[in-house]
Design goal:
This protein has about 280 residues and is of the alpha/beta class. The chain has a single domain, classed as TIM Barrel (Alpha-Beta Barrel). Helix 4 links the parallel strand 4 and strand 5. The chain is globular and about 45 Å long. Bound molecules: 9-methylguanine (9MG). 9-methylguanine binds next to strand 5.
C-alpha cells in the first residue's frame, strides 16, 4: 500500500515530480457534515482509508470532533473512543501517514502513542498544554487559523486585511510554538478556509494564498465541499466535486503543498495536471 517513514518529508510529496500531496479526510464523527457519519464504524473507516490510499492519498487525517460551522464540542473521552480504535486498526493494516485532527492535548498524545504521526489542529495549539505536548512528542503539526469557535465563527467575522491579519496571527503562533520547543521544520500552516471567514474573505485568501510563502513554512489548504463552494454555486454538499477540485487547482497554482480533501482520486489527478504544467513537461 502506501508508504511512510519519510519523517523529514511530511509536507512534501514522496514523488519529487509532484507539486503537492493529498491528505484524505477520515471523519469518525456521527454528525460529520459531508459523509453523514457513514464512516463512524471501524470497518467502514478502514475501507474508506484503504480506498483513499489506493487513490493517491499520502496522509489520512483522522478526526473525532466535527468542526463544521455550528458544531457542538465533544468531550475528551468521546473523542478518544472514536479515534483511537481507528488509528490502531489503520496502523495494523497500512503503512501510511496518519494525522490526528484534534485540539485537545490528551487526544494528541494518545493518538500519537496509538500510531498517528502528526497533529492537525484547527486551533493552532491554543488550548492548554498543546504546545508542550506536541514539543515533547516531537511530531509535525499543522497550525490552522480560525477566528472564533465553530459554534459561532461565521457570525460576521471582520479583518483589517484578511491575509495580513492571518499572517500576523501565524507569526505570533509560530514564535510561541518554537519557544515552547517545537521544531520549525515540524510546522505547516493553514489559513483555515471557512473558519470565521465570509465568502469574500475566503476567495481573497485563495487568490492571495501565495503571500503566505514569505513566512517560510509549507502550506496546507482545505476547501473540500465547504460552504465557500456551496454558497457560490448554490449547490448541496454532494454536488461540490467540481468546485472542490477547482479550488484545489487554484491553491496548487499558488503553491500549496498539501491539499486536504474528501475526493482523493479527482484531486490526485488535478495534482498531476498541475505538476506537469509546473514542470513544463508532459512527464510526471
Ligand atoms: C479538521 N479540519 C476541517 N477543516 C480543515 C481545514 O480546512 N484545514 C485543516 N488543517 N483541518 C481541517
Amino acid at each position: 500500500m502506501s508508504k511512510t517513514n519519510n519523517i523529514h518529508g511530511y509536507f512534501k510529496p514522496t514523488d519529487p515530480n509532484l507539486c503537492a500531496k493529498v491528505m484524505g479526510i477520515l471523519n469518525v464523527t456521527p454528525d460529520s457534515f459531508s459523509d453523514g457519519g457513514h464512516f463512524s464504524q471501524i470497518d467502514n473507516a478502514v475501507r474508506q482509508a484503504e480506498q483513499m490510499l489506493l487513490e493517491g492519498a499520502e496522509i489520512i487525517d483522522i478526526g473525532g470532533e466535527s468542526t463544521r460551522p455550528g458544531a457542538e464540542a465533544v468531550n475528551e473521552a468521546q473523542e478518544l473512543d472514536r479515534v483511537i480504535p481507528v488509528i490502531e486498526a489503520l496502523k495494523q493494516r497500512f503503512d501510511c501517514l496518519m494525522s490526528i485532527a484534534t485540539s485537545k492535548a490528551t487526544v494528541m498524545k494518545e493518538a500519537i502513542v496509538a500510531g498517528a504521526h502528526m497533529v492537525n489542529d484547527v486551533k493552532a495549539l491554543s488550548e492548554p498544554g498543546c504546545v508542550d505536548t506536541v514539543a515533547k512528542l516531537n511530531v509535525p503539526v499543522c497550525l490552522m487559523h480560525m477566528r472564533g469557535v465553530p459554534r459561532t465563527m461565521q457570525a460576521n467575522p471582520s479583518y483589517t486585511d484578511v491575509v495580513d491579519d492571518i499572517k500576523a496571527f501565524f507569526v505570533q503562533r509560530i514564535a510561541l510554538c518554537v519557544q515552547g520547543g517545537i521544531k520549525p521544520e515540524h510546522i505547516c500552516l493553514d489559513p483555515g478556509f471557512g473558519f470565521g471567514k465570509t465568502l469574500e474573505q475566503n476567495y481573497q485568501l485563495l487568490n492571495r494564498l501565495d503571500e503566505f510563502h514569505s513566512l517560510g513554512y509549507p502550506l496546507l489548504a482545505g476547501m473540500s465541499r465547504k460552504s465557500m463552494i456551496g454558497n457560490l454555486l448554490n449547490n448541496r454538499v454532494e454536488e461540490r466535486l467540481v468546485g472542490s477540485v477547482s479550488c484545489a487547482v487554484i491553491a496548487l497554482m499558488k503553491g500549496a503543498n498539501v491539499i486536504r480533501v474528501h475526493d482523493v482520486k479527482e484531486t490526485f489527478e488535478a495534482i498531476k495536471i498541475v505538476s506537469a504544467t509546473k514542470n513544463n513537461s508532459g512527464v510526471i
